[in-house]
Amino acid sequence: MYIKLTNFQKRTAELFLLSLNGSKTSKRIVTTGNGQMEPESQAIITRIPGGWTADRKPEQIAEALLKADPEIDTQLIGKPVRVRSLAYLDEQRRPVCHFRLVEEKLTPEGAVKETKPYKVSESNIELPIQLSPKGSQTTEDLVQKFVLHKIYQVIHLDSLSFDFLFKLCQEIQGLGFVRVNGGIKGNEPLTLRREGLPSFAYLRGRVDGEKYCCTLHLTHLELKGPSIGY
Amino acid sequence: MAACTFNIDNIKHVSDLQKVTRDDLYGSRRVQALGPADKPLQRAGVPEEGDLYLISGDIARTMRVGEHFTLAPVEVVDSATGQKKDVVPSSFKVVPEFRRATAEEVSLLEVASVYRLAGAPLQPGAFYIGTFNYRDGFERNDAAILANGHGTFLLVGKLKKPGYVGMEIDSQIIAEAAAGEEAAEAAENFESLF
Question: How close does chain B come to A43, measured CA to CA in Å?
Answer without folding.
Answer: 4
